[in-house]
Design a protein that fits this description.
single chain, alpha+beta, seven-stranded mixed β-sheet, 5 helices, 7 strands, disordered C terminus
């Protein structure tokens, strides 16, 4: 793994680490939840492919931490239990001309507990302080108002109420 301080941005209630192969089963279970899949690519119907998505994403997310620029989505664990809650972090997206996006998908048991906001703030801090990023994007479906709120409260501004992207301040 890269010699970067990826774990130095703490939140207290969340453990964040690079995704590992042994996360696949728990990650698949979370991605298979219609409540999680609702705001991901493919919507609730994609919950049926949660296992397939996890099988593809777990090694892809893990590999991002092994090569420059040494960042990717973290595996997010509830610190008090060690239980995997999903992913959260930064990801370079070629489909956005190589821009870095803030993204997350957390298990329904994490919803309403402000874990997304804690993790998003840590990811934005990591992006500025450790990864040296100057700008990024937060993506959300227009109907996902909570995600826009999390992005804004994590230090991103929404330049226009009709757009789906936020820029880092």
């Amino acid at each position: 793994m890269a010699d970067v301080a990826w774990n130095t941005v703490g939140t207290g209630r969340l453990g964040r680490r690079p995704v590992r192969a042994e996360d696949e089963a728990a990650y698949a279970a979370s991605r298979s939840e219609p409540e999680v899949a609702r705001y991901l690519s493919g919507g609730e119907a994609a919950a049926a492919q949660g296992g397939e998505k996890a099988a593809a994403l777990v090694p892809a997310f893990a590999a991002m931490w092994e090569e420059p620029p040494f960042y990717g989505p973290w595996a997010v664990e509830e610190a008090s239990t060690g239980r995997l809650l999903g992913h959260l972090g930064l990801r370079k997206l070629e489909e956005l001309r190589g821009r870095t996006a803030l993204l997350y998908a957390l298990d329904p048991s994490a919803h309403g507990r402000r874990f997304a906001l804690e993790g998003a703030r840590a990811a934005v801090a990591y992006g500025f302080a450790l990864a040296g990023l100057g700008a990024g994007t937060a993506l959300a479906l227009p109907q996902n108002l909570r995600s826009f709120e999390v992005s804004a409260r994590a230090g991103m501004v929404r330049p226009d109420g009709r757009v789906e992207a936020c820029e880092l301040q």
